[in-house]
Design brief:
- With 271 residues, this protein is mainly α.
- It has a domain at 72-235.
- The chain has helices at residues 13-40, 46-62, 72-81, 85-96, 101-105, 109-120, 125-136, 188-199, 202-214, 220-227, 236-247, 258-269, and strands at residues 149-151, 178-179, 182-183, 185-187.
- The strands form two sheets. It has a two-stranded antiparallel ribbon with strand order 1-4. It has a two-stranded antiparallel sheet with strand order 2-3.
- Strand 2 and strand 3 (182-183) form a beta hairpin.
- Helix 3 (72-81) runs antiparallel to helix 4 (85-96).
- The two termini are 20 Å apart.
- Residues 1-24, 29-53 and 63-67 have low confidence and may be disordered.
């Protein structure tokens, strides 16, 4: 049984509720990840997978929490009201790129990401691809592949409430983000790959990501591995090797970072 202890028994009810909700989502994501690992690895690797999960949960308990964080909802909602998810993505990257996993417990980043997801799914695959490709792939000024991954709320209001935000009620008005079969998980990289797959551009995007990985561009490997788990002709051996390597990491190898959530997204997609 996976258990992540509460960090502070004296926290106020609001913060306690937020931590419990987030911890439950983290456990759900972790369980999804471990199930995926079991599916793609041999029995001999099962213990290594369990060790990898223990490493994540142990480091989670050791992480420190910043004293103050911005309201991500306040940062992105003005842009989303103007139906400008591109600007909202930029705001999130400027403020959340160095966010630790523990910091998520005390921030509204999951709510902001859920709002961003609802805005993006209203767009066509062409529009999604254009926005997310430009935001994700490196530029002359930014030498990294950007991916935002975070658990998000799974509760959504009835579609009739769309009128209260000036929209027509549609089935996807309050869409809940998902990676593979795992609901309540937003991953910008997964959305980009889905749009690319819809448009027949996934093979070319895989080639681009492979070239970036060979150039040691930060973040390229994770998105390249994720790209193997969608569409046809993906290299499942690459995904298997990546997940095995993550499971084999020692408990004290590195502190938890936002990258670990993208690793969880890969595991979720592998289910």
């Amino acid at each position: 049984m996976i258990h992540i202890p509460l960090r502070n028994s004296k926290m106020n009810p609001t913060m306690r509720s937020r931590q419990i909700n987030f911890t439950s989502q983290w456990i759900s994501v972790a369980c999804a990840g471990i199930t995926a690992l079991i599916c793609v690895m041999s029995y001999a690797c099962h213990c290594a997978a369990q060790d990898g999960l223990t490493r994540l949960t142990d480091l989670f308990g050791q992480a420190t929490v910043a004293k103050s964080k911005p309201s991500y909802s306040e940062l992105v909602l003005p842009a989303l009201r103007e139906r400008d998810p591109e600007a909202a993505l930029q705001k999130l990257d400027e403020s959340a790129s160095s966010l630790t996993i523990s910091d998520m417990l005390y921030s509204d980043l999951p709510s902001a990401a859920a709002a961003l997801n609802r805005s993006l799914v209203q767009l066509s695959s062409d529009q999604q691809y254009e926005i997310l490709e430009e935001w994700t792939l490196p530029t002359e000024q930014r030498k990294r592949v950007r991916v935002l991954s975070t658990p998000v709320p799974t509760d959504a209001p009835p579609k009739v409430f769309a009128r209260s935000i000036g929209e027509r009620p549609r089935d996807n008005t309050f869409a809940v983000a998902a990676v593979g079969p795992v609901d309540g998980f937003f991953c910008s990289g997964w959305m980009l790959l889905q749009a690319a797959n819809d448009l027949g551009r996934l093979p070319r995007l895989r080639i681009t990501l492979k070239e970036l990985h060979e150039q040691n561009v930060s973040g390229a490997e994770e998105l390249l591995v994720l790209a193997q788990l969608l569409g046809s002709r993906g290299d499942l051996d690459m995904a298997k090797s990546f997940l095995e390597a993550q499971a084999a990491l020692p408990v004290d190898a590195t502190p938890l970072t936002s990258r670990d959530m993208t690793v969880a997204a890969i595991a979720a997609a592998a289910m």
